[in-house]
Amino acid sequence: MSITDLLNSEDIRKAVGAFAAADTFDYKKFFQMVGLKKKSPDDVKKVFHILDKDKSGFIEEDELGSILKGFAADARELTAKETKTLLAAGDKDGDGKIGAEEFSTLVAES
């Protein structure tokens, strides 16, 4: 399954483009722009599993840095600051990574 099976490719293109400049990434706006906020909990979990590149059941800090590439291959990497901000927002239990439930909560709060 690919991300475009779940989200509109044009919405993804616009959202990735909106945050093309370094240190502009806003996960709340991004999740809204790609249409993730409107998806069912089941579809949000499917997106999580696509973004969990190593299939560990978690999105670790290095995967978070590449989160935009999970939506569009030609997207940029997040800056270290953006990655830390996203991790701090999503890592509810403080284990240094984001699990499926934490990702669902992060999307729901956006």
Automatic annotation (TrEMBL):
Gene3D superfamilies listed in its UniProt record: EF-hand
Keyword line: Calcium, Metal-binding, Muscle protein, Repeat
Domain EF-hand: 39-74, 78-110
Binding site for Ca(2+) 1: D52, D54, S56, F58, E63
Coiled-coil features, chain-numbered ranges: none
InterPro entries membership: EF-hand-dom_pair, EF_Hand_1_Ca_BS, EF_hand_dom, Parvalbumin
Annotated GO CC locations: cytoplasm
Binding site for Ca(2+) 2: D91, D93, D95, K97, E102
GO MF terms held by the record: calcium ion binding
Keyword NAD on entry: no
A matching Pfam family: EF-hand_7
Matches recorded under PROSITE patterns: EF_HAND_1, EF_HAND_2
Summary of the function given for this chain in its UniProt record: In muscle, parvalbumin is thought to be involved in relaxation after contraction. It binds two calcium ions.
Family recorded in the similarity comment: Belongs to the parvalbumin family.
Protein name per its UniProtKB record: Parvalbumin
Organism in which the protein naturally occurs: Nannospalax galili
